[in-house]
Design a protein that fits this description.
The structure is a single chain. By secondary structure, the chain is α+β, with helices and mostly antiparallel strands. The strands form 2 sheets. Strands 4-3-2-1-8 form a 5-stranded antiparallel beta sheet, covered by helices on one side. The chain has a 3-stranded antiparallel beta sheet with strand order 5-7-6. Strand 6 and strand 7 form a beta hairpin. Helix 1 crosses helix 2 and helix 1 crosses helix 3.
């Protein structure tokens, strides 16, 4: 009589949670408790990281204070002051300013909302040292900046510091 062998179950699926999230100059990898900015680690407390993860997993959605506190302090009763302090710490780590927030919006009396565009990253697209999702964007942005500087220099008649060799653009222009 033939023996039925169990079928292997794929380890990943289409609906699996993303490995990491990219937003602005940042990459958040929750399973590693890691927040990177331009491939450099950002110092951030564990509770603030839990809050950031909750917000980034649901961009654009209003998360009420109770939901966030349950996420960061699942087995502990805490005052809403703890949430405020950790949100302030998180905002500082992200370089946020009260005047014009880029990442986290406060909905007074209700909760918080992550307002920046978020790009989920799969395991294959997750960053490796020096090749984070911002690396290509940073290089392209740098090339655009350098081309802009070149155009300004040409406009001012300062095309080259070496008069024997004309200055050409980054893209050969």
């Amino acid at each position: 009589m033939p023996i039925a062998l169990p079928m292997s179950v794929p380890t990943g699926s289409i609906t699996a949670a993303p490995h990491a999230f990219a937003f602005g100059e940042f990459v958040l990898t929750p399973e590693r408790q890691s927040l990177m900015r331009l491939d450099r680690p950002v110092r951030i407390g564990g509770r603030a990281l839990d809050l950031l993860t909750a917000l980034v997993e649901r961009p654009g959605e209003l998360l009420d204070k109770q939901t966030l506190m349950a996420r960061a302090w699942p087995t502990t009763f805490v005052e809403s002051t703890n949430l405020k302090v950790n949100m302030a710490s998180l905002r500082k780590a992200l370089g946020e300013r009260h005047v014009a927030p880029q990442f986290i919006a406060t909905v007074v009396g209700r909760g918080y909302r992550f307002i920046a565009p978020v790009r989920p990253l799969s395991r294959t697209a997750a960053p490796h040292a020096g090749t984070g999702p911002g690396a290509g964007t940073r290089i392209a942005g740098l090339l655009d900046t350098l081309d802009g500087i070149l155009r300004e220099l040409q406009h001012l008649g300062l095309e080259s510091l070496d008069t024997a060799r004309p200055f050409t653009g980054i893209n050969g222009q």
